[in-house]
Specification:
This protein is an alpha/beta fold. Helix content is about 40%, strand content about 15%. The protein has three domains: about 15-60, Orthogonal Bundle (434 Repressor (Amino-terminal Domain)); about 75-170 and about 315-340, 3-Layer(aba) Sandwich (Rossmann fold), CATH 3.40.50; about 170-310, Rossmann fold (3-Layer(aba) Sandwich), CATH 3.40.50. It is elongated. The protein starts with 15 loop residues before the first helix and ends in an 8-residue tail after the last strand. It comes from Bifidobacterium catulorum.
Length: about 350
């Protein structure tokens, strides 16, 4: 007669010692390999992981925490969970952290400093091993005061403490990239419509602000100057919206500015700009080429015509930030600002020569 296993009978779990024996390494080496700690060769790490998979080894999280002094949990605080840049950053971080044994605790501060502080206290009370702080603007943000043993990585909005690790988009490069692409399309009379301007001077340019608008303008002006050019018409700033794109384009046309291309500092501005160009029977891109920024999937591909745009590579920011945090948790902290390169996404609103 075949014995029937009782449903209450619990199958014995594989131990770390059995994994170490199969991989022919010490218990300590097996533990380091499975916890992605340094001083383990790649070949040894692969052998230990293969043994763990073959034996269906499931780590005992409580025992791991007692041995390592870690909780294998990471706290993430966002400024705006629904923000257009936050989601891809979180997806990138999740991809990176998902292959580890870490649990992610996500909190949304909704742009409220007091709520952010409450979330921070909660995450520290849970003894998280590290923190990712995801901003929704490119302006610098205040450094967070946390215990020295808890590493923090700031994403998108850099910390105002230069010794902190901050991962941000290279908006200066983005501005230059837009100009260089239009030059490659044979355009020489390039107008610029700016986004938000919080610190204007008499000439409508930004002073001392690290915002995306100023950084993108800096990059564009540098590329124009290197080509021996100036912007076509005045550079104006207002909002990141389609309505501002329409208003600014009408101003350029009504004031008789001669231009054959427009750099719009957001895809929304670009959509508004193209609305007015079509109203005035100006062909895009043969008479006026248009390029946007951010490569928003709800705006750029479905524009008329489809909009060429500079992609912030937000998901890559999330990947890089998560790797930097894991490095810091393992005793290899990063310091300073790391800029993530953007990429050009060519569509029909610009055509190369």
């Amino acid at each position: 007669m075949t014995a029937v296993e009782s449903p209450n009978q619990v199958q014995r779990k594989t131990t770390l010692a059995e994994v170490a024996a199969m991989a022919e390494v010490s218990l300590a080496t097996a533990s380091k390999a499975l916890n992605n700690q340094p001083r383990v060769s790649d070949a040894t790490r692969r052998r230990v992981i293969a043994a763990a998979e073959k034996l269906s080894y499931v780590p005992n999280s409580q025992a791991q925490s007692l041995i390592s002094g870690r909780t294998n949990s990471i706290g993430v605080i966002t400024s705006d969970l629904t923000g257009r840049f936050c989601t891809p950053i979180l997806l990138g971080a999740e991809d990176e952290l998902g292959v580890t044994s870490n649990t992610v605790l996500l909190c949304n501060a909704r742009g409220d400093a007091l709520l952010e502080h409450k979330h921070l206290e909660f995450l520290l009370s849970r003894n998280v091993d590290g923190l990712l702080i995801v901003g929704d603007e490119t302006d610098t943000r205040p450094h967070l005061t946390v215990p020295n043993h808890v590493p923090v990585v700031y994403v998108y909005a850099p910390s105002d403490d230069e010794s902190d690790c901050s991962i941000v988009c290279d908006n200066v490069e983005a501005g230059a990239m837009a100009v260089e692409h239009l030059l490659s399309c044979g355009k020489r009379k390039i107008a610029i419509i700016g986004g938000s301007n919080t610190k204007p001077n008499a000439h409508n340019l930004l002073l001392g602000s690290p915002s995306a608008a100023k950084a993108r303008l800096d990059g564009a002006l540098k590329a124009l100057h290197e080509a021996g050019l100036e912007p076509a018409g005045p550079v104006r700033f207002s909002e990141w919206t389609e309505s501002w794109g329409r208003a600014a384009t009408r101003l350029l046309l009504d004031q008789g500015v001669d231009f054959d291309a427009v750099i719009c500092q957001s895809d929304g501005i670009a959509r508004g700009c193209m609305d007015v160009l079509r109203e005035r029977s100006l062909a895009i891109p043969s008479q006026v080429a248009v390029i946007g920024h951010d490569n928003r999937q709800l705006l750029a591909p479905d524009a008329d015509p489809p909009l060429t745009s500079i992609d912030n590579c937000s998901e890559e920011m999330g990947h890089v930030a998560a790797r930097a945090l894991l490095d810091a948790i393992n005793g290899r902290p990063h310091h300073g600002v790391e800029y993530i390169s953007c990429r050009l996404v060519q569509r029909e609103s610009t055509l190369p020569m």
